[in-house]
User: Which sequence fits this backbone?
């Protein structure tokens, strides 16, 4: 089963697919998928993300694979849903998408052995974990200014039940910028696989339902510019679309006043 | 974000927003002594220079301990380092606020005891050291802005088993309270009830199961907690 969370007609609804361009709300209404606001498809708890978890991507960035997974966390404001917009700051010269398989935890996991780990997975979705490389610094890298930016991690469109996906998922993933393919990979190439990650994490942090693990991205990250449409696809899970917005839309940058001025903060 | 199970009984907070959101961030390397301790290593690989932007960690929900709770230490023989921090409680949504306006977005302050595994360096996020279950204890009450006055001139004292183990002051911070809020809110909107830890002095005291920890911050309050092995922790 595939489920989404959308805002429509003044409320938030659970929704399921209903043909190519429509969705069915839990209350029975069938509406065009472009007439709703897509939210992350479940109530998200802790956002856990992996860096350098595909050997080819690590090589692309001139890193040798780690002995221990490179794990970092994001704040809740980083998340947006399908068809959202992500701001590209005016001073950025290299902002790139990262198409990732996202693993959603379904039952508490504390000190779980690798062999039992997949039973703690509720399902899967797609993440686009943007990075702005200009802001990378070598202190707690990747730092939050790169990886926990408002609206710079898209999640969705669907939460696909684990029961409907082989364990572990063996799926091709790819990214298209303005319709042209720029990134492709396959989840079989994860350096640290899902079961390992659940075992590793649950040894020191209890995973709870709603926590999500973004498993990293393969090679093929390229710069994106204001106005670009970025689509991240994973075979059988769906297509997550995002648009790159400029500073002006957010009242930021040289055209706007300095931070804080002119702006009511509440 | 759903409310964290560890915070069903949050600190007493008598000003808006009256409860915490459950989102907690910690400023890292915000103490001048951190860089003095590193010395020439700051300029060398892997760092290649002092940080330009604010350095932060997320304290995830399972790491948080409600007031009155204990710090959990997983493995016998493992010591945790106590990070004593002034926590800012956000009162009004702060997005890209100017330094001059930043304190207007503050509801108050609380004492936080943020315990981590000692770390050899600062290159990677090291969540195994910094996001451990039941490692970050929140104080029992939020002191309002007016009670606290200038948040950048507060003495912080850490006691272990009754003996003074560390002294520092928020006047030693690299970024002031207002500067920190401005810099963080440039890329992460701070919401009412979010907590932002302003940083800890380096080389905090190390504690093992059985240790009693107390942290005092002038005009903010006193936090008392205890380090316990996970075997002692109810429901663990």
Assistant:
């Amino acid at each position: 089963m595939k489920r989404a969370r959308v805002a429509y007609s003044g409320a938030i609804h659970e929704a399921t697919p209903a043909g190519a361009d429509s969705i069915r709300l839990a209350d029975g209404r069938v509406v065009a998928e472009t007439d709703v606001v897509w939210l992350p498809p479940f109530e998200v708890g802790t956002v856990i993300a992996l860096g350098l978890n595909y050997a080819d991507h690590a090589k692309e960035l001139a890193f040798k694979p780690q002995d221990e997974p490179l794990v970092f966390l994001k704040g809740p404001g980083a998340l947006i849903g399908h068809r959202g917009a992500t701001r590209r700051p005016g001073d950025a010269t290299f902002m790139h998408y990262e198409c990732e398989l996202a693993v959603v935890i379904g039952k508490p996991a504390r000190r779980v052995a690798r062999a039992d780990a997949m039973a703690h997975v509720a399902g899967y979705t797609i993440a686009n974990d943007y990075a702005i490389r200009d802001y990378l610094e070598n202190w707690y890298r990747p730092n939050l200014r790169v990886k926990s930016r408002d609206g710079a991690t898209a999640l969705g469109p669907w939460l696909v039940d684990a029961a409907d996906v082989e364990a572990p998922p063996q799926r091709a993933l790819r990214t298209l910028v303005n319709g042209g393919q720029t990134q492709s990979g396959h989840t079989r190439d994860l350096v640290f696989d899902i079961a390992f990650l659940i075992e590793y994490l649950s040894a020191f942090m209890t995973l709870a339902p709603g926590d999500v693990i973004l498993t990293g991205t393969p090679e093929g990250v390229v710069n994106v510019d204001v106005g670009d449409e970025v689509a991240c696809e994973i075979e059988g899970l769906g297509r997550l679309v995002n648009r790159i917005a400029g500073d002006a839309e957010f009242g930021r940058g040289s055209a706007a006043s300095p931070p804080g001025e002119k702006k009511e903060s509440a | 974000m759903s409310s964290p199970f560890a915070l069903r009984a949050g600190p007493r907070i008598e000003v808006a927003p009256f409860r915490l959101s459950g989102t907690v961030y910690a400023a890292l390397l915000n103490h001048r002594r951190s860089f003095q301790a590193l010395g020439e290593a700051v300029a060398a690989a892997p760092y290649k220079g002092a940080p330009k932007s604010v350095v932060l960690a997320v304290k995830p929900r399972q790491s948080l301990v409600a007031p009155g709770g204990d710090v959990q230490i997983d493995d016998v023989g493992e010591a945790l380092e106590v990070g004593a921090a002034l926590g800012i409680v956000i009162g009004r949504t702060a997005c890209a606020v100017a330094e001059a306006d930043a304190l207007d977005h503050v509801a108050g302050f609380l004492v936080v005891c943020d315990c981590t595994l000692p770390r050899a360096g600062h290159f990677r996020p090291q969540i195994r050291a910094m996001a451990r279950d039941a490692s970050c204890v929140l104080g029992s009450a939020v002191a309002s802005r007016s009670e606290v006055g200038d948040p950048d001139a507060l003495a912080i004292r850490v006691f272990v088993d009754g003996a003074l183990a560390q002294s520092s002051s928020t006047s030693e911070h690299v970024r002031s309270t207002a500067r920190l809020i401005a810099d963080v809110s440039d890329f992460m909107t701070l919401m009412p009830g979010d907590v932002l830890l302003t940083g800890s002095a380096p080389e905090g005291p190390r504690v093992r199961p059985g240790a009693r920890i107390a942290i005092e911050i002038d005009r903010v309050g006193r936090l008392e907690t205890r380090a316990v092995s996970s075997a002692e922790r109810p429901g663990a």
Notes: The first helix of chain B runs from residue 32 to 38. Chain B has one domain: 5-39+52-231.
